[in-house]
């Protein structure tokens, strides 16, 4: 059975991580360098994180069930947080070990071999990380993006390790080894914190501003006269899936069938824009006479006020849980039973 594309990328990351950790520990055995050990220990996390990312992508691909009506996509954010937590712990230990090495420097052996081996692993990590980030963004997978960014981080750490070994080889000063490990420890801690922050943001449904802006722009560009107003727009990401709900004001005299057709058009428009599974719930609100001032319906049988101004939908006003109304300068008169269709 052919594995899904995202699963294949996650499996590639796991295999690459296992091979490169072996190479880095071999380089540490040759050099006895603190910065190489730091790099190798940080890379162990790649294996655990890649395995968890692989499992989370498998879970995220499962269909909805009674216990998970919105699907299993949130697990990918948990994967990013788990990976960030591991990076934080590793960075803390690396920082501590670097301080000890700075206090009691020791000789680094065969730094030239260490540079060659580490540089090779850095190049492989950069290439794999680029593939994962690109695939994760194309398929809207936070787990793949997080795993790829971690490999970028690992590659940066390795290049720093190479530079430190080069300085040791040129100057015969062992302090460069410990100082580089100290700097890497701090760098790793900061990036681990950022990954945890991104995970918490996704799990807590923090507003995805760029996605909301994309939805608003699409509705504004293709708005129809019967879509008088859009408000209370909310967007949630569940892994690669989107859940969107909003309120749309429409002429109150439309039949249930006509209202349903407009709701279906809105859902289809948004789904086509993103090209990924989109679950959209649209609540239809009946219009009031205050909406006449910015209603585009030209053949409205119950209009009480002339069209004055279009209200442009933006991120600032569509997200509010209130209808957009121009100031009503004169109170509308009630409709007769004939006009209401009673």
Automatic annotation (TrEMBL):
Entry membrane topology: Multi-pass membrane protein
Task: List GO BP terms, alphabetically.
Answer: intracellular zinc ion homeostasis
The segment(s) forming the Cation efflux protein cytoplasmic domain are: 211-287
**Alphabetized Gene3D superfamilies for the sequence:** Cation efflux protein transmembrane domain (1.20.1510.10), Cation efflux protein, cytoplasmic domain (3.30.70.1350)
Instruction: For the region Disordered, give the residue spans.
Output: 323-342
Q: Give residue ranges for domain Cation efflux protein transmembrane.
A: 11-204
Q: What is this protein called?
A: Cation transporter
